[in-house]
C-alpha cells in the first residue's frame, strides 16, 4: 500500500526532483517546462485529488492537491484550468511543504508581562473584542483599524468590510494591495470608469507582440511567460522587454530596451507622438469611442503626513492633446530617457501597425510609481489611439502579485474608499450596502480615512489605538519600515496579528491569532483576468488554527453585532459568497454562481447567461454593451474611454553627490513577497537563502566590490547590509542597484522612501537615492 513510510519518502523525493526541473525552467525562461507533472507521482499513489487555486501570485494557476490520511502530500497543476493548462512554477509545486513547518502558529498567544503566553482561542478573541470596544468607547470608532491582504479570501475581505464599515461604522480598513495594485485600480477607473483589465489570458494565444513594461515576467509570472514563449516558438510572436534593468525576462525576449528610472512617462508620450505624426491613429475608433482630458500637474509626492489631493479633470480636444505632445518627440525624450530615437520609433511602429496585435503587460514597475496612475493612463492612451483594445490579442493588461488582490481587495472593497460595489463617497452605493447588510445607511461613513501608508503613520502619531493585521507582514513590506516598528510596540496601540507563521509583524503584536492556511479552509480567490475560483476545505488545520473569516465573525458577535453575522460555521463560505453576489448582479459585473464554480476551474466575470465575458466593452463579446456600436466603454457616463494628457515629472528623490545611486527593489522567482511562506520551504530557501544587492560591473569595479562581499546600502532614512551580486541573476544599469525584499534579516524597506502616487496612494519602491560602501 502507498501509505507506507518508504513509499511516501520516495514520492516526496520524486516530487522534489520534478520541482527542481521546473525551477530550472523558471529560472532560465528559454526552457518551456513540460505539462506532464504527474510523471513525478508514483503509479501506485492512491491519492484523493481536490481542485483549487495556487496560494501565491495573482496569475491564479489551478492546482490539484493530493491528500492521503487527512494530510496534503502532493500538488500538481490542474490540466482543466485554462490559466496554466497543467503547468506550475517552482513555488506552486512546493506550496504545501510550508504548512508543516515546526514554527507553525497553532494556538493563540497573548503578551503578558512582556512574554507570549499560550491562550485558548476563545479567550484571545474575548480580549480582542474587549480591546476594540474599549478603544471605541474612549477614543471614537476611528481609533480602531484593520489592515488586510490580497492573500485574504473573498469571504474574508467581504466580512472585514461589513464588520468595519457596516457594523462599527468606520472606513479605517485598507489592505496590502494598496502597496501593489492601487495604481492599476485608479488607472482603469480614470480611463474607463471601471476597474480591472478588459482582456484575459487567451490574448496570449492571439497577440503578435508582447511589450512588458518594467515587468520581469520570467520570474514574477513564470507560467504566463512560458505561455508567451510557447507562442514565440509556435507562431513567431515577439516579446519586447522594456525596463530599467536586465533580467531573465530580458535574455528570453526578442529585444530588450532599457530606460532611465521615471522616464517611462515621457517614453509613453513619445510613442503617442509618433503614432500621431505617422498617421497611425485609428481615427474612426477615437472619434466614436474616446474623449480627451487633462488633470492637475505638479501634484506632490505624499511625503508629508495627512497629505490630501483631489484631481480636477478638464476636458480638452484632440488638437490640444496633439500640441501637448510636441514636447515629447523621440529626439527630445531620447536625451533624458537614454533610449535611442531608433528604439522609440521601433516601439511606436509596433503599436501603430494596424496588422499587428499587441498586448502590453505590466506589474510593479508601473504601479509602484509616484505617478503610477499617470503611467497606467499613458499606456492606455497608446492602445486607445490605435484602437488596439478589448479584442483577442489586443489590449493593455495589468498583472497582479497576490492570489486575490483583484477578487478580495478590488472587487470586495477592502480599500478605505471602497464598498463591495462602488465607493463610500457615492450615496447610492452606500444605500445598496446598507440594504444588503441590513444596517442604517448613516452608519456607513461617506468619506475615506486612511490608506495603507497613512494608516501606519496614524499608528505612529497615536491617532489609531487598535489595529488588526491579517494575512500580511507590514513590518517587512511597508516603505520606510523603520518608522513604524517603534510605533507598533507602543503601549498606546493594541496590535492584533492573525497569520499562519511568526513574522516580524507578529513580533510586535499584543495578541497573535493562529490562522488556517488556504487549503485548510474553503474560500474563493479572484485573479488578474477577473477569474473567480472556488475551493473546498481539503485538510484540517493544526491545533486551534482557524479561518480568519470565522475569527472576524466571532469578534463581531462579541461586540454585539450578532444579528449582522448570522452565518453558520459549517457553511459560512457559501452563505457569505451568495450574499456578496447581490452587490454585482447584472451584465456589467455578474459573478458566477457557486454551482458553476464547484464544477469548473473558475469563471470570468461578468458571468452572464451562463457564460464568461472574456473581452469587455466589445459588443461582439460583452452583453453589457448597449450603445449600438462595436465598442461601449460603459464605465463612463458618455460611454467613451478617456485619453489623458499626463506630463513627465521627476521622481521625488534622485541620485546626487551624497547619495549617487538609484535603489530599485523587487522579487525573485524562488520567494514570494516577504518570504514568510517560501522561506519555510527547504528547497526554495536553499536555492535562495538570503537577499543580495546587484551592481553593474563597472560600478563594482570602481568601488572595489567583489561578489559575496558585504555592502552597506544607506539612504536618508536607514541602512541595510547585504552581500554583493555582480553578473549573476540580474544586471542593473550603471548608477543603479537592485535588492529583493523577501529577506526579513536584511530589511531593505528600512531604506526605501515613503512617497506615493497622490491619486492611488500606492508607494514607489522602485526609485530612491542611496549611497553604497563596503561593510
Descriptive overview:
The protein has 775 residues and is α/β, with parallel strands linked by helices. It folds into 4 domains: 5-100, ADC-like domains (N-terminal domain of TfIIb, Single Sheet); 108-180 and 416-566, Rossmann fold, CATH 3.40.50.740; 182-399 and 636-645, Dimethylsulfoxide Reductase, domain 2 (3-Layer(aba) Sandwich); 661-774, Beta Barrel (Barwin-like endoglucanases). The protein has 25 helices and 31 strands. The strands form 8 sheets. The chain has a 7-stranded mixed sheet with strand order 5-4-18-17-16-6-7, sandwiched between helices. A 6-stranded mixed sheet has the order 26-28-27-31-25-30. It has a 5-stranded parallel sheet with strand order 11-9-8-14-15, sandwiched between helices. It is globular. Residues 1-8, 15-24 and 26-39 have low confidence and may be disordered. Keywords: 4Fe-4S, Electron transport, Iron, Iron-sulfur, Metal-binding, Molybdenum, Nitrate assimilation, Oxidoreductase, Periplasm, Signal, Transport. [4Fe-4S] cluster binds at residues 54, 57, 61, 89. Residues 47-103 form the 4Fe-4S Mo/W bis-MGD-type domain. It is an enzyme of class 1 (oxidoreductase). GO terms for molecular function: 4 iron, 4 sulfur cluster binding; electron transfer activity; iron ion binding; molybdenum ion binding; molybdopterin cofactor binding; nitrate reductase (cytochrome) activity.
Amino acid at each position: 500500500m502507498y501509505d507506507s513510510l518508504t513509499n511516501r519518502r520516495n514520492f516526496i523525493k520524486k516530487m522534489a526532483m520534478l520541482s527542481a526541473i521546473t525551477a530550472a525552467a523558471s529560472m532560465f525562461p528559454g526552457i518551456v517546462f513540460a505539462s506532464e507533472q504527474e510523471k513525478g507521482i508514483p503509479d501506485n499513489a492512491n491519492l484523493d485529488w481536490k481542485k483549487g487555486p495556487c496560494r501565491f501570485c495573482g496569475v491564479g494557476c489551478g492546482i490539484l492537491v493530493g491528500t492521503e490520511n487527512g494530510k496534503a502530500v502532493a500538488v500538481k497543476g490542474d490540466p482543466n484550468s485554462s490559466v496554466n493548462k497543467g503547468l506550475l512554477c517552482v513555488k506552486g509545486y512546493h506550496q504545501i511543504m510550508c504548512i508543516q513547518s515546526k514554527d507553525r502558529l497553532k494556538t493563540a498567544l497573548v503578551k503578558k508581562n512582556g512574554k507570549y503566553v499560550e491562550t485558548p482561542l476563545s479567550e484571545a478573541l474575548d480580549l480582542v473584542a474587549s480591546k476594540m470596544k474599549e478603544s471605541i468607547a474612549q477614543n471614537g470608532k476611528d481609533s480602531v483599524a484593520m489592515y488586510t491582504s490580497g492573500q485574504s479570501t473573498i469571504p474574508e475581505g467581504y466580512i472585514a468590510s461589513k464588520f468595519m464599515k457596516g457594523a462599527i461604522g468606520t472606513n479605517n480598513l485598507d489592505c496590502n494591495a494598496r502597496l501593489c495594485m492601487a495604481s492599476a485600480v485608479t488607472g482603469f477607473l480614470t480611463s474607463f470608469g471601471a476597474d480591472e483589465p478588459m482582456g484575459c489570458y487567451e490574448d496570449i494565444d492571439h497577440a503578435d507582440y508582447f511589450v512588458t513594461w518594467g515587468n520581469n515576467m520570467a520570474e514574477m509570472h513564470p507560467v504566463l511567460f512560458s505561455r508567451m514563449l510557447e507562442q514565440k516558438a509556435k507562431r513567431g510572436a515577439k516579446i519586447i522587454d522594456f525596463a530599467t534593468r536586465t533580467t531573465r525576462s530580458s535574455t528570453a525576449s526578442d529585444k530588450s530596451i532599457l530606460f532611465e528610472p521615471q522616464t517611462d512617462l515621457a517614453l509613453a508620450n513619445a510613442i503617442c507622438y509618433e503614432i500621431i505624426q505617422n498617421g497611425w491613429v485609428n481615427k474612426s475608433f477615437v472619434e466614436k469611442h474616446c474623449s480627451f482630458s487633462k488633470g492637475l500637474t505638479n501634484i506632490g509626492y505624499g511625503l508629508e503626513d495627512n497629505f490630501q489631493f483631489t484631481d480636477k479633470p478638464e476636458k480638452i480636444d484632440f488638437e490640444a492633446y496633439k500640441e501637448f505632445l510636441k514636447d515629447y518627440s523621440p529626439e527630445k525624450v531620447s536625451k533624458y530617457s537614454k533610449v535611442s530615437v531608433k528604439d522609440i520609433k521601433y516601439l511606436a511602429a509596433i503599436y501603430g501597425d494596424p496588422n499587428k496585435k499587441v498586448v502590453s503587460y505590466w506589474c510593479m514597475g508601473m504601479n509602484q510609481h509616484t505617478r503610477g496612475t499617470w503611467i497606467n493612463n499613458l499606456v492606455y492612451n497608446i492602445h486607445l489611439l490605435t484602437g488596439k483594445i478589448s479584442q483577442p490579442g489586443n489590449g493593455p493588461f495589468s498583472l497582479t502579485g497576490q492570489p486575490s488582490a483583484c477578487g478580495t481587495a478590488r472587487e470586495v472593497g477592502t480599500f478605505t474608499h471602497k464598498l463591495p460595489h462602488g465607493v463610500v463617497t457615492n450615496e447610492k452605493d452606500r444605500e445598496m450596502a446598507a440594504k444588503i447588510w441590513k444596517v442604517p445607511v448613516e452608519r456607513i461613513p461617506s468619506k475615506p480615512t486612511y490608506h495603507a501608508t497613512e494608516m501606519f503613520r496614524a499608528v505612529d502619531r497615536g491617532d489609531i489605538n487598535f489595529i488588526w493585521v491579517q494575512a500580511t507582514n507590514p513590518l517587512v513590506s511597508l516603505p520606510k519600515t523603520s518608522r513604524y516598528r517603534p510605533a507598533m510596540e507602543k503601549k498606546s496601540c493594541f496590535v492584533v496579528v492573525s497569520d499562519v507563521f511568526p513574522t516580524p509583524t507578529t513580533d510586535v503584536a499584543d495578541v497573535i491569532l493562529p490562522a488556517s492556511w488556504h487549503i485548510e479552509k474553503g474560500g474563493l480567490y479572484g485573479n488578474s483576468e477577473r477569474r473567480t475560483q472556488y475551493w473546498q476545505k481539503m485538510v484540517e488545520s493544526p491545533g486551534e488554527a482557524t479561518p480568519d473569516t470565522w475569527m472576524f465573525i466571532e469578534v463581531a458577535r462579541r461586540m454585539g453585532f450578532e444579528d449582522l453575522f448570522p452565518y453558520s460555521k459549517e457553511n459560512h463560505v457559501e452563505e457569505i459568497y451568495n450574499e456578496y453576489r447581490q452587490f454585482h448582479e447584472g451584465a456589467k459585473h455578474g459573478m458566477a454562481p457557486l454551482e458553476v464554480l464547484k464544477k469548473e476551474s473558475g469563471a470570468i466575470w461578468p458571468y452572464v447567461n451562463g457564460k464568461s465575458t472574456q473581452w469587455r466593452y466589445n459588443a461582439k463579446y460583452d452583453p453589457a454593451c448597449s450603445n449600438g456600436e462595436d465598442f461601449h466603454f460603459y464605465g463612463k457616463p458618455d460611454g467613451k474611454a478617456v485619453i489623458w494628457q499626463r506630463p513627465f515629472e521627476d521622481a521625488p528623490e534622485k541620485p546626487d553627490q551624497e547619495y549617487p545611486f538609484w535603489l530599485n527593489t523587487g522579487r525573485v522567482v524562488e520567494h514570494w513577497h516577504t518570504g514568510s511562506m517560501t522561506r519555510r520551504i527547504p528547497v526554495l530557501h536553499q536555492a535562495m537563502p538570503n537577499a543580495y544587492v546587484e551592481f553593474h560591473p563597472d560600478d563594482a569595479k570602481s568601488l572595489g566590490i567583489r561578489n559575496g562581499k558585504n555592502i552597506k546600502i544607506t539612504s536618508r532614512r536607514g541602512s541595510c547590509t547585504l552581500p554583493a551580486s555582480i553578473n549573476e541573476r540580474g544586471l542593473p544599469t550603471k548608477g543603479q542597484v537592485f535588492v529583493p525584499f523577501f529577506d526579513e534579516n536584511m530589511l531593505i524597506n528600512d531604506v526605501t522612501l515613503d512617497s506615493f502616487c497622490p491619486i492611488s496612494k500606492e508607494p514607489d519602491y522602485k526609485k530612491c537615492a542611496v549611497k553604497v560602501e563596503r561593510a
